[in-house]
Amino acid sequence: MGKGNTEKKTKRKYIPGLAQLKFELEYDWTASEAKKLFTKTKSSLALDSIKFEDSIAGMKSMPPSSVDLIIADPPFGIDFTGKGSQYNRKRALVEDGYVEISKDYTTFTKNWIGCLSHIMKEKASAYIISGWTNLNAVLSAIESSELKLINHIIWKYQFGVFTKRKFVSSHYHILFVVKEDNYFFNKYEYYPEDVWEIPRTYHPGMKKNGTKLPEALVSRCIQFSSKPGDIIFDPFMGNATTAVCAKGLYRHYFGFELNLNMEEIHQSNLDKIALGAFYHPLKEFLPTQEKLLEKYPHLKKHIE
Ligand SMILES: C[S@@+](CC[C@H](N)C(=O)[O-])C[C@H]1O[C@@H](n2cnc3c(N)ncnc32)[C@H](O)[C@@H]1O
């Protein structure tokens, strides 16, 4: 009989809050380290630019293994313009020209998702946003691609469109996919769950296209899955939310948008934000020792 079998296993007692108290970040950077990394990036892509062209053709002409993270929020394929009365918006503030996919959403989805792994670096990942109506198409495109599904995140938002004879939709799906098992992931919360409650943002009086992701949601993806100086790619830029968040977090951006009417909006959104303006070292997102001791007073004796 081997030695291991005769020895008694010592059971560790579970102490509430202790693991959280001992939790350490694997990576973190001060603002000046982040800025330095930003200035050092080298790439053959036209960094920090948005091209007004079809993203499927555009991705095919990008160099292989050229991006660190992808945030993709494609058109939903539901004949969306964002101008319908159900959205409660002033029509004049919704920019024209939003490009929808009127036929064969499944083929469109398979085509663009099929382009992702080629442009992703080995440790890169992608967050693909989808409503529930065309989720099937997105999941089967992922299944037939070279990507691996790691998490199926639910984004819970507030104020879905009012309904009379069905439940109000108040969530989106976010598929977190990677190319290789050794993907980069900077866990900056002790217990990050796969349901994210993030309010939609409202910008009264500001012109935009019909859909805009909250900056908090895009920033969360960027902070978990990239380092300062990394290249964040968005094939469907819309209002340039990904570009704004990347700039604000000392990351570079690159992407495509078909609607030329959005050019001025991109410029104005990007001009409003200074380089690094959203940046905070990640340790600032963790609860302080004092806060944890308030919640778990029994932990005092575990502090040297
Ligand atoms: C859901 S919106 C993206 C919104 C964006 N995430 C934001 O926060 O503003 C999708 C965008 O994709 C654009 N689009 C549609 N087909 C495209 C294509 N083949 N290539 C590039 N952009 C496209 C639409 O014009 C629309 O602006």
From TrEMBL:
Keywords: Methyltransferase, Restriction system, S-adenosyl-L-methionine, Transferase. Gene3D superfamilies: Vaccinia Virus protein VP39. It catalyses: a 2'-deoxycytidine in DNA + S-adenosyl-L-methionine = an N(4)-methyl-2'-deoxycytidine in DNA + S-adenosyl-L-homocysteine + H(+). It is an enzyme of class 2 (transferase). InterPro entries: DNA_methylase_N4/N6, DNA_methylase_N6_adenine_CS, RM_Methyltransferase, SAM-dependent_MTases_sf. Its EC number is 2.1.1.113. Residues 67-265 form the DNA methylase N-4/N-6 domain. The keyword Zinc does not apply. The keyword Isomerase does not apply. Belongs to the N(4)/N(6)-methyltransferase family. This is Type II methyltransferase. It comes from Candidatus Lokiarchaeum ossiferum.
